[in-house]
Amino acid sequence: GSCQGNSVERKIYIPLNKTAPCVRLLNATHQIGCQSSISGDTGVIHVVEKEEDLNWVLADGPHPPYMILLDGNLFNRRVMLQLKGTSRVSGLAVAIAKPSPPQGFSPGLKCPNDGFGVYSKDYGPQFAHCNKTVWNPVGSGLSYEDFDFPIFLLEDANETQVIKQCYQDHNVPRDGSGPEYPLCAMQLFSHMHAVTSTVTCMRRSSLQSTFSINPEVVCDPLLDYNVWSTLQPINSSGKVDPEKEVIIVATRIDSHSFFWNIAPGAESAVSSFVTHLAAAEALHKVSDIHLLQRNIMFTFFQGETFDYIGSSRMVYDMEKDKFPLRLDNIHSFVELNQVALRNDSILWMHTDPVSRMNESVEVQVRNLLSILSDSSVGANVTLQEAGYSQPLPPSSFQRFLRARHIPGVVLTDHRTAFQNRYYQSMYDTPENIRLQYPEGLSPEETLEYVTDTAKSLAEVATVVARALYRLAGGANNTSAIQADPKTVSRMLYGFLIKMNNSWFQSIIKPDIKGILGDVPQHYVAVSSPVNTTYLVQYVLANLTGTVVNLTKEECLNPEKTPSSEKEMYEYAWVQGSLDPNSTSRVPYCVRSTVHLSKALSPAFELRQWGSTEYSTWTESRWKEIRARIFLVASKELEIITLVVGIAILIFSLLATYFINAKADVLFSVPRDPGAVAY
Amino acid sequence: PALGLFLFTIARDPLRIIILIAGAFFWLVSLLLSSLIWFIAIKASNPQDELLQKGLLIFGVMFSVLLQEAFRFLYYKLLRKAIEGLVALSEDSCSPISIQQMAYVAGVGFGLMSGAFSTINLLADALGPGTVGIHGDSQLYFLTSAFMTMVMIFLHTFWAILFFHGCEHQRWWEITAVVVMHLAVSGLTFCNPLYIGSLVPSYLLMATAATWAYLLSGGSAQNLRRFLLCK
C-alpha cells in the first residue's frame, strides 16, 4: 500500500537476521578470521554459483567492489585465496550447502593442534608435524587464514532466496554489458577491535584496565570450565593420598567451525562425550564400586579445539598442587575421541610408541590393551590395535604425556586419517553420524526413540565401562555392566537436535532454564560456562548422582546440615519433571560428585602471552554485528539531486533579496509612513 | 527558499524572530495533540485490520489539519492581544509591526516547523548507503519529498496571510477556503507514490494561494509589471 505510516528506514533496508559472522581470533603470533571496516562494508551483490561467475567479480564487472553470495559448494580454499588477493571484493556471504558437500569439507588444519601435543623435535621427531600420519587430509586450513573483508553465513534458505531475488531483479548483467542502476547491494558490519596477536591485544587491554577509568578491553581469552567427577567420592578441597591410584577417562566437549558459534560437532565432540556419559552411568550402577581398588575420574575437557586449553590447565593445576589429584596418582588414561563412524564395528586403540619404549610403561600399556580387548567379548565391537609405529592422534592424552609418561590409550573409529570428512565444520551435523529419525514423530517421541547410532554408541560405552571396571580392580563378572541405549538416545537428541526438551528441562536448576536455546552449538566462548558445560554437568549429576531427601534450604546450603559431607559431594536443586496433568514441577535435591574446574590456559595465569607451550587463543571483542540489503542509486542521480537543491537555494536567495529590495514597488497599500520597515 | 525568507526578511528584527519561534511552537503543540489522538486510536483498535488502519490514518491526518488551523486561530487571537500591548508600549502609539507582517511571520514559522518535521527523519536515513526502492517504491522518493516540503512551507506562509486577513475583516469564507485548501493538499498526499497526482495539484494550489495573498497584501498586476520591468 502507499501510505502505511512506515518509517523511511523500513522502505530502504531489509535486515538479514539469521546470519553468523566470522570473527577474529588471535594467538601468540597471528590473527585469524575476518574483519570489516568500522562503518560496515558495502558492495553490489553478485551471486556466484559456478566458477565462471567469479570472472565477473574479479575482472569484468563494472561496479566494484562486489559483495559475493557464494554457494556453499564453492566455499573452498582455492576460491577463497583468489578472493583474498583482490581488492574488488568487499565481503562475502556464504549460503550453507544442502546437502553437505560430498567430497568433504573441513576448514580446520591438516594437522590439528600441531606443536601443542606431545610430539616435537625433542620427543618423537619422526611423528611431529604429522610426518607419519596426516590426521585430517580434507583440512584446508581456511579457519586459520586472515581475511580483511567480512564473511557471513546465511543460515536461512528464505533469506538467501530474498537476496537472490533482489539480484535477479536488478543486478543481472544484460547481454554482457553491465546492469543499470539502481543496483542491489549488501552491507555487512563485523568490526573487530583486536589486532595482530594475543600479545598486542592483551597488552593493550591490561594497560586500559590498569590506567583507565572506563577500560576498553579489546580481547578476551577463550575460557570455560572442565567437568570432572569421580566414581568413589573424594575430598575436592583437600588432597588425595599419593598411594591412591586413579584411572582418568577423558573426552572433549567442544568443537569449532569457520563461523562464530556455529559448531554442531556431532562426530568430533558429541559422539565421544555422550558415550563417556553412558559409560559413567553404567559404572555407577555396579554394586561394589566402593570396594574397588582404584578410583575412576570421568573428565570432560573444554577448549580442546584451541590447542588443548582444558587439559593443559588441568595438568598445570596437578603439577602446581591446585587440584585434589597429582600426576603421581594417575594409574592410566583412557580417552575417547571420535567414535561414531566405525567401519565394520572396529574400534581402534592408539598408543604412544615413544613412551612404550620404556619397559615398565610398556608392561602397563599391554595390560591396558588386553583388558580392553577382553571387555569387548560378546559385544558388537571389535577392538584392534592401531599399530606400534603410529603416533597418537590429537588428543588430551598428549598433554598428560608431556608431563609424565602415563600408560594410556585413545579409542577412535579411524586407524590413520579421520573418518570424519567434516571435522570442525558446520557440516558436522547429526546427518554426519547417520542419526536418523522416522518422519512424523512428535518431539517427545523423538526424544525417546532409540536410533541405530545410539545403539552402536551404547555398545562402545558398554565395552569401555567393563574395561574400566576391570582396570579399577573389580573382580566380579562384568556381563551385568550395560550402557543404556535409551539414555544415549536421549542425550544425542538433546545435544544435537533440540536442547529444549523435557528431559533436559527436568534435570537443570530452576534459575537457568533460559539457557536452553534451539539448535545446540558447542563452541567454547568467552563467557562461561557455556550451555554445553552446564548441560554436561547436570546430565552427569543426574546419571551418576543420587536423589536425597533434603529441602530446598538444606540443599542450597549443605554446610548447615551436619551429615552432608560438603567437601565430598555437590548438591544441586533441580527443577524436576512436569506433572502430567498440571503445569508445576516437582523439584528435588541431587547429590553427586560432579565438580567444575576452571579451563583457562596457564599462559594467561602466568601472563606469558607469547607462550609457545600453552594455548594463547583469544577472541576479539566487537560492538555490533549485523547485515542488511538495499538498493544503491547511481552517482548521477545523487549528483543531480544535489545540484538541483543548490540551484533552488541560490535562486530563492536571489529572488527573496530582490523582492525585499523592491517591496515598496510590489506592495503599494498606503501605510502609516515610518512605521513599516520591510 | 525558507532559508532565504528567513535571512532577508525576519532575521533582522527581533520582534519578528519572537513571533516566528512562537508560531513554530504553536504548530508543534497542535501536532503533538493530534498525534496523541491518533496514537490512542491506533492502540485501541485492531492492528491486523489494514483497512481500519488506513482509515484511522486518514482520520488522523484530517483531524491534524483541523487542529493546526484551530491553533492558527488561537495564535491570531494571541497576536491581536499582543498588538494592543505593543501599542501601549510604543512611543508614538503605533504598533511597530502590523498584523499583516505578523501574519506573514507566523506563516513562515508554521511552515518552517512543518518542513523540519517532514524532512529531518528523511535526511537521517538518506545519509546511509542505501536509497529507497527495494520494496518497489520509486527511486525519486527523496527528490519528491523535498519538493513536497518546499510547497508546504510556501503554502503555510500564504495560508497564514489569508487566514489572518479573513479574521481581521470578518470574512469567514476566506478562513473556510484556507481550511479546505489545507485538507485538499493533505488528502492529495494519499495519492503517493503517484507523484503527479500530489505534487502538481499542490503547486497549482500554491500558485492560487500566492496570488490571492499578494493581492490581499496590496499588490496588483500593475505593480508586478513595474517590478519586473525595473529589473
From TrEMBL, chain A:
Annotated TM spans: 639-659
Signal peptide: none
InterPro entries the record matches: Ncstrn_small, Nicastrin
Membrane-topology annotation of the record: Single-pass membrane protein; Single-pass type I membrane protein
Database matches in Pfam families: Ncstrn_small, Nicastrin
GO biological process: Notch receptor processing; Notch signaling pathway; protein processing
Nicastrin small lobe domain location: 21-194
Places the protein is found: Cytoplasmic vesicle membrane; Endomembrane system; Melanosome
Assigned keywords, A-Z: Cytoplasmic vesicle, Disulfide bond, Glycoprotein, Membrane, Notch signaling pathway, Signal, Transmembrane, Transmembrane helix
SUPFAM superfamilies per UniProt: Zn-dependent exopeptidases
A GO cellular-component term linked to this record: protein-containing complex
CDD domains the record matches: M28_Nicastrin
Family: Belongs to the nicastrin family.
Function description: Essential subunit of the gamma-secretase complex, an endoprotease complex that catalyzes the intramembrane cleavage of integral membrane proteins such as Notch receptors and APP (amyloid-beta precursor protein). The gamma-secretase complex plays a role in Notch and Wnt signaling cascades and regulation of downstream processes via its role in processing key regulatory proteins, and by regulating cytosolic CTNNB1 levels.
Listed name of the protein: Nicastrin
Species this chain originates from: Nipponia nippon (Crested ibis)
Taxonomic lineage of the native organism: Eukaryota, Metazoa, Chordata, Craniata, Vertebrata
Automatic annotation (TrEMBL), chain B:
Keyword Membrane: yes
Signal peptide start-end: none
One GO CC annotation: gamma-secretase complex
Transmembrane region(s): 17-41, 56-75, 102-120, 140-163, 175-196, 202-221
Keywords: Membrane, Notch signaling pathway, Transmembrane, Transmembrane helix
Biological process (GO), any one: protein processing
Pfam short name (any one): Aph-1
Subcellular location(s) of the protein: Membrane
Bilayer topology term: Multi-pass membrane protein
Principal location listed in the UniProt entry: membrane
Family label: Belongs to the APH-1 family.
Cited function: Potential subunit of the gamma-secretase complex, an endoprotease complex that catalyzes the intramembrane cleavage of integral proteins such as Notch receptors.
Quaternary assembly: Component of the gamma-secretase complex.
Designated name of the protein: Gamma-secretase subunit APH-1
Organism of derivation: Nipponia nippon (Crested ibis)
